[in-house]
Amino acid sequence: MMPSFKQLSASRSRMDYLLFGAMAALVLLGACCIMSAVNSISWSNPVVRTHLVALPVGALAFFIGWSFNYQIFGEQWKYMYGFILLLLVGVLLFGSYQRGSRSWFVFPFFSMQPSEICRVCLILVAAAFLNLRGRRSRDISSLFSLGLLLAPVFGLIMMQPDFSSVVVTLPALMVLLYCAGVNVFYLSMIALLVFVSGFFTISWTYIYLHPELLDYAWVRVFHGLAHNAWYIAGFAVSVILLGYVLWWFFRYLRVFLPSFYFVLASLVVLMGLGGGIFVEHQMKPHQRKRVEAFLAPKSDPRGAGYNVLQAQIAMGAGGMTGKGLFSGTQSRLGFVPERHTDFILAVVGEELGLLGTLVVLGLYLIVLWRIVAIAYTSSDRYGYLVCAGIFGMFFTYMLVNYGMLIGIVPVAGIPLPFISYGGSNLVASLWALGVVQSVHARRLRA
Q1: pTM
Q2: How many domains does the structure of the chain reveal?
Q3: Distance between CA atoms of 118 and 37, rounded to whole angstroms?
Q4: Which parts of the chain sit beneath pLDDT 50?
């Protein structure tokens, strides 16, 4: 049941102060850590200046997100979708080429990474699409339609290429789909697609690191799937035959599963191979180095594994309570690269110790808890889905950054919102939480 105008007016000015407090604490702590991380380098002034400029812009984005009725995004989602495509096409045509990717607009006094803004917009668009489908959002037709809608967006992102943006966006959409009631089997097929693509990419990189494995014939065949058309055709035939055999076997056991499931699973495996081949050929040298560092960081301590090992050394040097802000040696002396972006948690660990990293983790958990709580009190399904997608986004950010630090996740070049340096990410993250606050402000009173 939709809320009355009186109910909305009475709750419009309300804010979730726990969420706001945790967010503000993260922003303040992040500003201190960034200034500490770059204090000893020659180009620290532009970094600090950019961050200090991004802070008020992000604050404005937060209050705009909070003040505007979030339902406007649901009504105008088609225009927002067009805005996403316009930004992504624009950055391919006019963006700056940096570190192997064309992902930035560079202006005289600032730069912007449009994929950060587009990620939040995409969550709002996908939530609106699923909300309009109602109960039909659980059907395979809705999932297929949403896939067609999102395919151009992911295609443009991969053309940059910006793999890290996909790493964050896809899990957020998966959480959104689950909360929309999409059949778990279909979600498992999406997960299988991602797993198979990642499996081929990581396995081929592992073979590259251990060429002696090519002495085995089956390894040579597997490696040939990356570029040999005959091997690919043989693999496709084998997968189709295996799907048929499994279907026949289940029928023999009197387990009558729809044949559509086996056909879909076979297609997903083949699409996963195609995705792995695409990533293999699109992957830049510095991105491949990240996978190599994940697989064997100690095999190349001065090369691919340097970043991870130095970050872990810095964490260990901090001990329980740390050396104090602006007192870290590993980070200030430059041993930890990308210390103000990808490995900002190493700075937190060295200067604030294990307790500092746990405080950051605790603040993030408070943010996630409040997003979930706000989702359950939303006045409509659209607000619930928006919160679900934003929860998935921040959960992925947290999981990947802490996973990178302890070596269980490949270095993906993904910032930790509010803590890492990055104006575009800070503004987009604050805007996202502003939208969540808008859902809270316009909720029905319990």
Answers
A1: 0.83
A2: 1
A3: 28
A4: 1-13, 304, 446
